Amino acid sequence: MSPLKKTNRTTTPPTEEDCYLGQFIPLQYHHHMLMDDYRMNSFKAAINEAVFPGAKVLDLGGGTGVLSWFAAAKADKVWYVELNPDLIREARRLLKMNLGGEKIELVHADAFKYLPPEPIDVVICEMLHPAMLCEKQINVIKSFKERYLKRFGGVLPRFIPEAVLMAVQPLQQNHRFTGFHAPIIQFQLPGGIHEGTLDLAPPQLYSSIDYTQTISEELCWEGVFNLELAGQVNALRFITKNILSISTKDNSVIEWQNHYLVLPLAEPLQASAGNLLSIKFNYLAGGSLAHLQNTISAILK
């Protein structure tokens, strides 16, 4: 096996905000993602569907290199781009252990600035967080599209994920922990039964983003829920479904959901079944959890 190629790039040191918002997620978290069969199988299936023999692929925010490695099974060339030097070292270590790693060029660079040396067929970008906060998925793809079209023109490459759907839902959420009252941000596995959570109304879609179309980094929504159950409205659940790939053969969809994000409201509202609940919020993609939380308005009508 040929040694992995390495390209050194000059990068701007991350700001305090960059580190806080997840650009330098601890290595152990990336190891945990490798252990998530749902995530791994979903991305492997999407990449296998989108990448064709001979393709050229760009992986923005490559992490441990596993998604680049999935792509290398078919692609002729893969550019892996990562800003975190710890992850570059870890990806180099792991890819040397896996057949096909010689097709992957490791690039230490900022995904907001890097462009491949030639046109590509597929872009993989897994900077995904509930409600598209903290990580810079939307921001990076928006920037990439603008720079790519300016340099190469023509047709954009295919994106993985292809789209994202986001919904919101009012809850009565248990905020007591061994008797201690603590209205805190919580994360829940998608689907299933969540003890201590009462869904007061069905979720409503507040944003759908197709990465091939014009993307806005500002996410704003105002809507009304007809509450189906009585209870204390004290939290909102944010649901994020990533459309990883749509099959060109049979239009089947490969999707992956982030954990649900449950944000407590500043002031709980005691509601009856049939009450109307008005919700509005606005935030910037890639911002902090508090950035969204502080904009939420909830009013019973």
List strands and helices in order, with pairings.
Blueprint (H helix, E strand, L loop, with lengths): L4 E4 L7 H5 L6 H8 L2 H14 L5 E5 L5 H7 L4 E6 L2 H11 L8 E5 L13 E4 L11 H16 L5 E3 L2 E11 L2 E2 L2 E2 L4 E3 L8 E3 L4 E7 L7 E9 L4 E16 L6 E5 L2 E12 L4 E9 L4 H5 L3 E4 L1
Characterization of the model:
The chain is α/β, with parallel strands linked by helices and 301 residues long. Strands 7, 10, 11, 12, 14, 15 and 16 form a 7-stranded antiparallel beta sheet that branches. Strands 1-4-3-2-5-6 form a 6-stranded parallel beta sheet, with helices on both faces. It has helices at 16-20, 27-34, 37-50, 66-72, 85-95, 137-152, 289-293; strands at residues 5-8, 56-60, 77-82, 104-108, 122-125, 158-160, 163-173, 176-177, 180-181, 186-188, 197-199, 204-210, 218-226, 231-246, 253-257, 260-271, 276-284, 297-300. Mean pLDDT is 91; it is low at 1-21. Strand 3 (77-82), helix 5 (85-95) and strand 4 form a beta-alpha-beta unit. The chain has 2 domains: 5-126, Vaccinia Virus protein VP39 (Rossmann fold, 3-Layer(aba) Sandwich), CATH 3.40.50.150; 163-300, Hnrnp arginine n-methyltransferase1. The longest helix has 16 residues, at 137-152. The chain is built from 7 helices and 18 strands.
Structural class: alpha/beta
Series of secondary-structure elements, N-terminal to C-terminal: EHHHEHEHEEHEEEEEEEEEEEEHE
**Poorly predicted runs:** 1-21
Query: How many separate helices?
Result: 7
What is the CATH architecture term of the largest domain?
Distorted Sandwich
What portion of residues is helical? 10-25%
- CATH first level of the largest domain: Mainly Beta
The CATH topology name of the largest domain reads Hnrnp arginine n-methyltransferase1
How would you state the average pLDDT, rounded? 91
Radius of gyration: 21 Å
Query: What is the terminal separation in angstroms?
Result: 67 Å
> What is the fourth-level CATH superfamily of the largest domain?
Hnrnp arginine n-methyltransferase1
Please count the beta strands (DSSP E, at least 2 residues each). Answer: 18
Q: Characterize the largest beta sheet: strand count, sense, and whether it forms a barrel.
A: 7 strands, antiparallel
